[in-house]
Design goal:
Blueprint lengths: L11 E5 L10 H9 L2 E4 L5 H4 L7 E4 L11 H13 L4 E5 L9 H10 L4 E4 L4 H9 L11 E6 L12 H4 L4 E6 L5 H10 L7 E6 L7 E6 L3 H7 L6 E5 L8 H12 L2
Parallel strand pairs: 1-4, 1-5, 2-3, 2-4, 6-7
Antiparallel strand pairs: 7-10, 8-9, 8-10
Helix pairs in contact: 3-4, 7-8
The structure holds S-adenosyl-L-homocysteine.
S-adenosyl-L-homocysteine binds next to helix 5 and strand 10.
Length: about 260
Amino acid sequence: MTSPRTVLPGEVWLVGAGPGDPELLTRKAERLITEASVVFFDALVGAGVLDLIPDHVRRVCVGKRAGRHSKDQPSIDALIVQAALSGERVVRLKGGDPAIFGRATEEIEACRDHGIAVRMCPGVTAASAAAADLGLSLSLRGLARRITFVTAHLTKGKALAHDWADLADPQATLAVYMGKAAAGEVSRGLIAAGLPSATPVALVESASHESARHFVTRLDLLPLAAQTALGDGPALILIGEAIGRASSEEICEAERAVSSY
Ligand code: SAH
């Protein structure tokens, strides 16, 4: 067997940190962060994952959380490029999977524009972690034949430009990333396009973390649940018949939380 690819000086690895639980980090990711000379990480990377970075490796937080951007994307691209050009072994650690709503393309292209070799290590995405926390499958034979990952990130002052008719597929499970602020628009858009109001919905906050919380409700109650049931953590919205397979205990808990509001 050939020896695994290491992080070479002047090279950049985009590495998936998974949803937070350090045990959900791949073995490859764990090895790469010990071979780096510098790790640039996001605010979404779990504290337990950061603890695995050895002391001799420099850490740079380039954290981005909704509404609290500390660095814009071009500045992050420039930092990575600069580090690689100066001969550092660069790991860019990103929450979940770098290839899913992770602005990976910008960083890959910035590196390629400067002739820097760039490689990627996948990670467990939030939708997979949320399904595991709920104890259900995102696909369901005969009922959910399609899984759609969609971002509901709102640009200030702009409505979401989704094709609701396409997304309102009763045979699909919809995983909505960055959807907390736009929960009302998502619910109204899907119902107006014909998805039944009673379609099961789950809100999963900080999936895989010790502080994880989840609520199961229905599509018409999603806006209220998103406003009342969630804290500060990252949250994923799952919509579709497959989500109805959550246990009835979770559904009762969600109904209590919403009705006590
Ligand atoms: N690349 C990441 C997604 C980044 S977009 C991935 O593959 O998971 C950021 C959004 O991901 C958050 O707004 C939230 O919707 C979702 N997210 C990330 N981590 C999460 C977690 N632990 N629990 C719930 N949602 C999470």
